[in-house]
């Protein structure tokens, strides 16, 4: 899906420097990575607000994921 955005000159210069450096192949990659980073930061803040550590969150997530996989494939395993 295509999305059009407007950037300030400073932001566009930064994006172009990242592409020219070879770290990213395109402007789109830079923007996608920035959004992924924002999502990760938001998730960390939500976890922190719930009073959990990242280690605790990952442990619970693994337990729940394992239980869901067992339920889904109960008859096939």
Describe the structure.
This protein has 77 residues and is mostly helical. It has three helices and no strands. The longest helix is centred in the middle third of the chain and has 23 residues, at 27-49. The two termini are 38 Å apart. The mean pLDDT is 91.
Number of helices: 3
Strand content: under 5%
Cα radius of gyration in angstroms: 19 Å
Count up the domains. Answer: 1
How much helix is in the residues?
Answer: over 70%
**N-to-C order of helices and strands:** HHH
Termini separation: 38 Å
- Beta-strand segment tally: 0
The overall pLDDT, averaged over residues, is 91
Class from secondary-structure proportions: mainly alpha
Low-confidence stretches: none
The multimeric state of the shown protein is: single chain
Shape assignment:
elongated
Largest sheet: none
How are the SSEs ordered, and which strands pair?
Blueprint: H1 9-21, H2 27-49, H3 54-72
State the main characteristics.
mainly alpha, 77 residues, 3 helices
Summarize the structure.
The chain has helices at residues 9-21, 27-49, 54-72. It has 77 residues and is an all-alpha fold.
């Amino acid at each position: 899906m295509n999305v059009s955005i407007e950037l300030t000159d400073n932001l566009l210069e930064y994006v172009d420097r990242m592409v020219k450096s070879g770290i990213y192949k395109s402007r789109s990659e830079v923007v996608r990575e920035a959004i992924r980073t924002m999502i990760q930061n938001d998730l960390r803040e939500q976890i922190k607000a719930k009073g959990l550590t990242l280690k605790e969150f990952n442990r619970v997530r693994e337990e729940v994921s394992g239980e869901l996989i067992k339920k889904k494939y109960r008859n096939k395993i």
